[in-house]
Amino acid sequence: MRMLKTLALVAGLGLSSLAMADEAKIAAAADLKFAFDELKVLFEKKHPEHKLEMIMGSSGKFKHQIENGAPFDVYFSADVEFPKALVESGHAVAPVTTYAFGRVVLWSAKHDATKLTLEDLPKDTFRKVAIAAPDHAPYGLRAKEALQHAKVWDKVEGKMVYGENIAHTAQLIETQAADIGIIALSLAVNDKLKSKGGYYLIPDNFHEPLEQAYAVTKHGENNKAAHAFAEFMRTEDARKVMRHYGFLLPGEKVE
Known about the structure:
Structural class: alpha/beta
């Protein structure tokens, strides 16, 4: 009888643990690819009751998908205005939380970008220049702004090759489908890309700030894993990973 009671208690605790567990689908801007690979492992180690599915892509396209009912639980955008718009339309729940400020760099797997600036791009040496599509990718829009600031946009627009998102843009340059391009610093510092070429850090006053923010979606409002991951992003462990990939964090200054 005592054994049966013990088994019943253990079973009850197991069911209780399962009831507290959740799996969250995270829609995240493509510049977060390498950072989130690490953060997923860290989070699931600290919260073994929860699981995360990371879907990386274009911030703008994710916004439209969420508006059309895509079952994402947390939305990490490369542009703070996108999650703000989702909260205003009722597709996400407040608060909208800034998690990082991104930077853009000139990068090439074919040329030494450390010795180049944006003013070099009109040269005949560079036949194809890649940026993310400015109409839906925040990093692409900031790249266009930087080129306009350097007064070379009109000279290089005809050379442009557009990536679906910033990770796709990096792939175009890595495979030399484009000679050079503008990508996220968070991708350029990854070991895989770093081994193929250095980068030129574009001054942050060449473009509007890349303020990146997240919000829990309406779909994820009652998802425990979604809220746990949102909280985890504010921990020092998570911030350490983000710093490693070149992100400037809220409350910190450029050194």
